[in-house]
Amino acid sequence: xxxxxxxxxxxxxxLDVCKIFKEKYSWYKAAxxxxxxxxxxxxxxxxxxxxxxxxxxxxxxxRTKLLGFIPWKRTSSARGYAQALDGTWSEYLxxxxxxxxxxxxxxxxxxxxxWYNYKSHKKLGISMTxxxxxxxxxxxxxxxYKKGSYRKKPWLMSVADKVQRQSDSxxxxxxxxxxxxxxxxxxF
Length: 188
Description:
Elements: H1 17-23, H2 25-38, H3 42-53, E1 63-66, E2 70-74, H4 86-96, H5 106-124, H6 131-147, H7 154-183
Antiparallel strand pairs: 1-2
Helix pairs in contact: 1-2, 1-7, 2-5, 3-5, 3-7, 5-6, 6-7
């Protein structure tokens, strides 16, 4: 059996944060570092990543169809775990330093999510624990959020509610395993 590069494979169970981190301990360290740097809770960041990419490293929007059947252009430049757009990713790289950062690297993606949500907190006054509002600002951009563009999108409001529920679930799960994760020691 050839396993290939399992490093980029999504976790087996994406609904349980403890199982995610048990399977991918390096993700826990990356998420913890992002939380310490940006003060955005792990459960909020992971709920957004789950919604954006289902933890698929090379996720991209579907292509439009030319003449109804020929694969054509993608609907946006979003890529990777965080589905970061080219322009926003460039802004992040400019502020954080762009050496070797990639959207399909979980450590970089979770740091990007923390950075973006921290900026949303500062610019828009959104609580760092309000996954619903942070997701709306993430999806619509800061100006779109200020204008309330999401209010005209019932489907997006429903998705933001889903992100909040996932965040709440991850928070409860994480409380049950964070001491154990914090004690885990690895040589590699």
